[in-house]
Amino acid sequence: MINKFTVWFDNLPIQRKLILGFGLIASLLFVSMGIEIVRTSFEDNARQKSDDAQQRMMLAERLRTEMISVRREEATIGLNFLAYGFAVDSETLDPIDAHVQEMLAIISEFKGLKDNTGSDSKGTILEIEQQVLAYDSALQTSFDLVQQRGNENEGWGGDLVSKLEILSAQGFDTTEAVKLAKEVVQFRNASEGAGLLQAELDKLETSIQSSERSQVKKDSYLAVLSEIRTAATNLESSQGLLVSSFAEFSIISGNVETLAENFVDIQEKSSADALSEYKNARRVGGYVRYIGIVAMLMIGGGITVFTSQRIAKPITVLTETTQRISSGAYNQRTAIKSQDEIGQLAQSFDRMATEIQRREANLVEQAEELKVATAQAQSAARVKSEFLANMSHELRTPLNAIIGFSDMLLMGIAGELNSQQRHQVERLRLNGNRLLALVNDILDLARIESKRVELILKPFSPRALSEHMASQMSVLAKENNLKFEIKVESDVPEQLIGDEKRIEQVVVNLLSNAFKFTQQGSVRLDITTNLAEKQWAIAVTDTGIGIPPHAINLIFEEFRQLDGTSTRAYQGSGLGLAITRNLVRIMSGEIKVQSKLGEGSTFTIVLPIIPESPTRQKTEPAVIAETLNL
Ligand code: ADP
After folding, report:
1. Which residue, judged by its Cα, is nearest atom 16 of ligand 1?
2. How close is the Cα of 519 to the center of ligand 1, in Å?
3. Which whole-number Å values give the CA distances from 459 to 109, 594, 612, 619, in the listed order?
4. Dist CA 576 CA 140 (whole Å)
5. Could you write out the three-class secondary structure of 379-412?
6. Handedness of CA 272, 275, 281, 287 (dihedral sign)
7. Ligand 1, pocket residues at CB < 6 Å
8. Which end of the chain offers a freer environment for a tag, N or C, measured as fewer CB atoms within 10 Å?
9. Which atom of ligand 1 lies closest to the CA of 573?
C-alpha cells in the first residue's frame, strides 16, 4: 500500500508534488483550527455551566438567608407572645412580608436563569415556590384580618370602643368594658381578655335592662350593645384565626427552611461538580491542545520531509552520479525510474552516460591505435633522419670531388680548355655547388631532427652581427638593384647571449629569401628589444611578391615552395624556412610572418634575452620531439 503510494507520488510532476504537500499541510492547519475551536467552545461551555451553577448556589444561599430571617421574625413574634401575649399588627408583619417578597424575587430570578433545568434543582425550586406562595397568601390573609381588626380608633376595635362610648354617654359604666376592649384589640391578655369582655358586656346588658329608661330607649341601647357584641365576637374569632395562621406560618416556614437547606446543598454540590467539570474540561482541553500541536508538528514535519525527500533524493542521486561520471566512472547510472521531470531528466542522463561510455571506449581504442601509429611514425622519422644524415654525408664526398676537379679543370692544370669545354665545366661546377648546398641543407635538417644539434651560447654583439650582414648581403643587393637598410634600436644591448652562428644562419636564410623574392624596392633588417618581456627581435622586411594568406603556414613545411612546378622562376630547395623555424624553436623563440600579396613580407624572429651565464645548452627533448613531428 505504502509502496504503491510512493510510486504514485514519485510519478507526479514536481509542481503537483509541491501542491499536494502544501495542500496536506494546509488541511492539517484547518483541522487543527477546527479542533481548537471545538476545544475552546467545550471549555467555554464548561465555564459557563460552572458560572451558572455558582450563581444558582448564591441565589440558593440568599433564599436560605431570607428564610432564616423570616424564621427569626416568627421567633420574635413567638417570644413576644410568651412575654406579652399575642400581638400582631401590620408593623409586625411588614418585615416578614419584605423577606417573603424578596424570596419570591429570588425564586423568579432563579427561574429566569438559563440553566435551571437540573431535575433536582427544578423540582425543589418549584416546591419552594409553592410553599412560599402559600406562606405569602396566608400572610396576606393575616394582613387583611389585622386590617379588619383595626385598633381602638378604627375597624372592629374602633367600632367596639366608639359604641361603648355611646353607651357611656347615656350614663352606663363602660370603663371596664373599654379597657378590656382595648386589651383585646391590642392582643393583650389574649387568653382571658375576650371572655372577660363578654362577661362585662353581659353586665352592661343587665344594667341596661334594669335601668329606668323607656322600653324604646332600652331597645336602642340593646341594639347598640348587640353591635358591640358582634364586633367583640369578630375580634375574638379573628384573634383565633390569626393564632392558627401563625401556627400554619411556622409549619410552612419550617418546610421552606428544610427545602432551602436541601436546595443549598444541591446547588453547592452542583456548583462543585460544575467547577470540577470545568477544571477537567480545561485539563482535557490542555491535553488536546498539546497533543494537537505535537501531532500537527509531527504529521506536518512528516509530510514536509517526505515531500522534500522524494523531490530532493533523485536530484542528489543525479548530482552524485554526475560527479562520479565526471571523475571517469562512465559505467555509473542513476537508475531513477520515476516519471516526473527529474525522472525524465535522469533517464535522459542515463542514456547520455551510456552514449558517453560507448564513445569513451571508442576513444580509448583509437588512442591505443594512435599510440602505436605515433610510435611507428616516430621510429620511421628517426630512421628517415638518420638515413638522410648518413646519405648527405656520403653524398658530400663525391660532390666535393666533382667540384674540386671542376675547379682544377677551370684553372687549366691539366691543359687549357676551349671555350665550349670551359662553359660546360662551369655549368658542371655551378650545379655541383647547388647540389652541395641542397645536401648541406638536408644534412642540417636531418641533424636537427635526429637531435644532433648543440647550441653554443656565448656573448655576441648584435650590432657587429648587423654590420656583418650588411657587408655579406650588400653584393646581393647591388646585383638585384635593391636598397638594403639596417637599423638597430638604441635600447638594444651591446651584448646578448646566444649561438651567434645559428642566429646568423637564420638571418641569412631570411635575407636570402627577401632578396630572392623582391624584384624592386628594398630589403630591411631591424633589430629591436622588448625589455619588459625580456625579448629581442630580428625582423626582415621586403617589398617583394608577398605570400598569399592560405600559404602562410605551408611555407614552413619541408620542400614546400609556393611555385612548385619544374619551371619555377625562383631557385631554392624549399628547406630554408623549415630549418629556420626548427632552429628558432631550439633557441626557445618563435617566428612570425606578416605578408600581403604583391606588396611584400615581414619575417620576425623573437628570441628570449638570456641572462649572462654562458653555458652550452643542449637541445631540449621537448623541442626535439616537436621537430620530429614536422
Ligand atoms: P626556398 O629555398 O624555396 O626559398 P624556403 O623554405 O626558404 O625555400 O621558402 C619556401 C617558400 O616560401 C619559397 O619557395 C617561397 O615561395 C616562399 N617565401 C619564402 N620567403 C619569401 C619572401 N620573403 N617573399 C615571398 N615568398 C617567400
Report:
1. 562
2. 14
3. 130, 30, 8, 19
4. 154
5. HHHHHHHHHHHHHHHHHHHHHHHHHHHHHHHHHC
6. negative
7. 513-514, 517, 542, 544-545, 547, 555, 560-562, 572-578, 601
8. N
9. 2
Q: Which stretch of DSSP H or E encloses residue 112?
A: helix 90-112
**CA separation for the pair 515, 541 (Å, rounded):** 10
Residues 438-453 have pLDDT tens digits of: 888 888 887 787 767 7
CA 548 – ligand 1 centroid, Å: 12
**Does 110 score more than 90 pLDDT?**
no
Per-residue CA distances from 568 to 334, 387, 579 (Å): 66, 29, 21
| Residue among 542, 555, 565, 581 whose CB has most ligand 1 atoms within 8 A, to mutate | 555
Ligand 1: distance of its center to the CA of 481 in Å?
20
- 161, 133 in Cβ contact below 8 A? no
Q: What angle do CA 24, 29, 35 make, to 5 degrees?
A: 125
CA dist 598 and 544 (Å) reads 7
Output the 3-class SS for 561-592. Answer: CCCCCCCCCCCCCCCHHHHHHHHHHHCCCEEE
CB 445 within 8 A of CB 558: yes
Centre of ligand 1 to C-alpha 49, Å, is: 117
Q: What is the pLDDT of residues 472-504, one digit of tens each?
A: 999 889 988 999 999 999 999 999 999 999 999
